[in-house]
Amino acid sequence: MASKNQNNAPSSPSQSKRSIDEASIDKRRRIANTKMPPNTGTRTQTRQAFSVVNGGQDLPPLCGPPSNSGSDCSAIEFNKDDVETLLNEKLKKNLNYREKNDKMIDLIKRLKLCIKWFLQLEANYVAEQDKIKKLLELAEKKCIDTELMMNAKEDELNSIIMELRKNLEALQAKFAKEEVERVEAMDSLARERDLRLAAEKLQASLSDDLRRTQLDNASANQKIQSLNDTYRRLQEFNTSLHQWNSRLQSDLETTNKTLKRVQEEKAAVVENLSTLRGHYTSLQEQLTLSRASQDEAIKQKEALGSETACLRGDLQQVREDRDRQLSQVQDLEAEVAKYKECTGKFSANLESLNTKAVELESTCSSQSEQIRKLREQLAFAENKLQLSNMSAMETRSEFEENKSLILELKSRLADADVKIVEGEKLRKKLHNTILELKGNIRVFCRVRPLLSDDGVGNDAKVVSFPTSMDLQGRGIDLNQNGQKHSFTYDKVFVPDNSQEDVFVEISQLVQSALDGYKVCIFAYGQTGSGKTYTMMGRPGLPDQKGLIPRSLEQVFQTKQMLEAQGWKYEMQVSMLEIYNEAIRDLLATNKSTFDATRVENAGKQYAIKHDANGNTYVSDLTIVDVRSSREVSYLLERAAQSRSVGKTQMNEQSSRSHFVFTLRIIGVNESTDQQVQGVLNLIDLAGSERLSKSGSTGDRLKETQAINKSLSSLSDVIFALAKKEEHVPFRNSKLTYLLQPCLGGDSKTLMFVNVSPDPSSLGESLCSLRFAARVNACEIGIPRRQTNLRSSDSRLSIG
Ligand SMILES: Nc1ncnc2c1ncn2[C@@H]1O[C@H](COP(=O)(O)OP(=O)(O)OP(=O)(O)O)[C@@H](O)[C@H]1O
After folding, report:
1. Region (Disordered) spans which residues (predicted)?
2. What is the C-alpha to C-alpha distance for residues 268 and 274, in angstroms, rounded to an integer?
């Protein structure tokens, strides 16, 4: 029991008290049951004895004091009632003597037993009383010792409690101090945080530190809270100890009062003592725990100190940041000062802007006035607009009518376009037919006027023109030594005929070139007869423009007209001369080409090639795309400056080479899916001259021989073509080979024979006229014999 009570926790003093009270009551009960006061004990023992004597079965067996072994009443117990019942028992009247005697004997026996039991009980009580007295004395001694010890322990506990209180006060003071420091640190941190937040958001790391510090503070607060809880528990424990002590004192007083009466109270005191010992042990343990908690609190204090140091470090860092921020603030203040200066300037500007605003306001008011007027005008205009809308409605209806009319006209126009295309095709066909009927090789004769330089002989008028109806405009008579030579051609131009008159006659051929035919127009004649004049005209005089510029003007004019029908044309120009059977590029930009020393070799550079489509290509020849007659005129001037010229008896500026102007015309009509490719060759041949007259030496002789040779070759080709012979000797000269695709077949060839009326060159004129007459006669199908020409005249022979 003692060890069990020692293990009881002291934390529940009321429970302990209750257990102690119950124990005390139990003990008291037991003491009351076992104790028999000397004056009353006889009656009780007597009753127990009488109960036994009266039968004893209905009485509960009581644990009486120890009895003598072997005695009859050792197991019999008596109480007061039993004794009184035994003493008051009377015999029944209806009993006989014997029965009365038996009953009396039995009663006597029971009385004897009761007396005997009572005497034994009394002796036992006396012995027990002595023993209890001795035990009480010992218990008193022990209680006094225990009380002394308890007092000592109480003093010791009081001193410990005082010490703990002091420690707690010191800890509380430290905690309060640290709390104040913490609050100060928190305040400073809050201030610094405000500064930080106001300055820049770059202090995110410091915010993290602050959060950590706050967490540490929270943990410290928790620790403080736990310490406060511990302190509160200790206080409660101290209070319970006080209560327990007071209860112990009261119990001690109760024990002292009942010490003499109750033996079991000694055990209770012993138990209490053991309990107190247990409590003492537990108090010692609590003390140990308190010391441990004190150590822990000291450690926590140290930890808090280190945390405070950390916080101070953070505070120092925060202060440094604050210093940095302050420097930034100073910089910002400097900037603010600058901005203030700028603000001053801006305020000046603002004043000027204010004045401008005032001006603008005045302008605005005037504009408001204008707006008002404009609104009036707008209202007026709206009225007009309504009227206009009404008229627009009328116009719209007219428009619809016109639209339908336009559609009808468009359909008619489309029909007309189709008809035009068809008509154009028909025109081309008819035009070609007419030209074919006129002859693919035609000969025109042109007699130039008599010039002042021309020599005047006996018979000044060697050229005349028949006036008969059938030959008018086609015949020419040449008088030589009284003999009249008459020639007929497709057309004869008299000296009075202008350049325009001549061009009118050849313009149909130019149209053929645009229609896609190959056209060649030659100017043939003796030197000084007017070939260059006919082809090129006189420079600087527009009314004396020659066939080439006029043809080009017609080409570009017709091109523009045909573009309306869907035709698109590309024009390419090339110009070359054949000098001494060598080709020379007159549009080449390299001037060295015209170096006389390179003339002979230059021919090899310009190889003539014909393709299957009848197109001619000269390698290395300059071909220029042209879009206007002006561009071509510019090129013609350049070429004229590059031509090989010389001086003859008949001409100061005699052309010593054949000049070939080629215009390639490529036309495409996408709407009718037609394509044409025509060529217009305009050729100013070198002037024929008798060798006897040319001064026939050196280069001059060579030039004249080359010219005569190429002209002879050309006459061969033209005769062959006119006679439609199978073998045409194109390769006899560069000129004929170059013109091969443009001669014969569907090609149109026109030869001008230029004649000089100068009597001194009558022979040359006669030769030219005879040659041209033969060509013309072949073409129109006149039998050779009817021309009265000798066979030897079939070839042009000059010199
Ligand atoms: N129809 C004409 N009307 C007026 N003057 C003309 C006419 N034909 C030629 N002339 C003039 O006659 C001169 C010789 O003419 P042109 O130079 O054209 O002869 P040519 O046949 O080209 O000579 P060559 O073969 O030697 O080059 C020039 O001064 C030219 O102005």
Report:
1. 1-45
2. 9
Q: How many CB atoms lie within 10 A of CB 541?
A: 9
The Å distance, Cα 529 to ligand 1 centre, comes to: 5
Distance CA 426, CA 618 (A): 35
201 CA from centroid of ligand 1 (Å)? 102
Cross-strand partners of 626: 571
Output the CA 768–ligand 1 centroid distance in Å. 16
Count of beta carbons in the 10 Å neighbourhood of residue 550: 20
Q: Are 555 and 519 in contact (CB under 8 A)?
A: no
Relative to beta strand 616-618, strand 608-610 is antiparallel
Biggest alpha carbon distance in the chain?
Answer: 244
Q: Could you write out the three-class secondary structure of 679-698? A: EEEEEECCCECCCCCCCCCH
- Please tell me if the CB atom of residue 499 comes closer than 6 angstroms to any atom of ligand 1: no
In which region does residue 115 sit, left (phi positive, over 0), alpha (psi from -120 to 50) or beta (all else)? Answer: alpha
Distance 756 CA to ligand 1 centre (A): 9
Residue of 157, 132, 142, 143 whose CA lies nearest to 253: 143
pLDDT tens column, 33-80: 443 444 444 334 433 434 444 444 333 333 344 444 444 445 567 787
The residues pairing with 625 across neighbouring beta strands, listed in sequence order, are: 572
Q: Which amino acid is at 108?
A: I
Determine if residue 745 is left, alpha or beta; phi over 0 gives left, psi from -120 to 50 gives alpha, anything else beta.
Answer: left
pLDDT, tens digit (0-9, with 9 covering 90-100), for 401-437: 888 888 988 888 888 878 887 787 777 777 777 777 6
* HEC letters along 589-642: CCHHHHCHHHHHHHHHHCCEEECCCCCEEECCCCCEEECCHHHHHHHHHHHHHH
Ligand 1 touching residue 655 (CB < 6 A): yes
What pTM did the predictor assign? 0.50
∠ CA 128-129-134, nearest 5°, is 95
DSSP three-state, residue 551: helix
Pocket test for ligand 1, best of 446, 448, 538, 656 (most atoms within 8 A of CB): 448
Asked if residue 532 has its Cβ within 6 Å of ligand 1, the reply is: yes
CA distance 637 to 624: 14
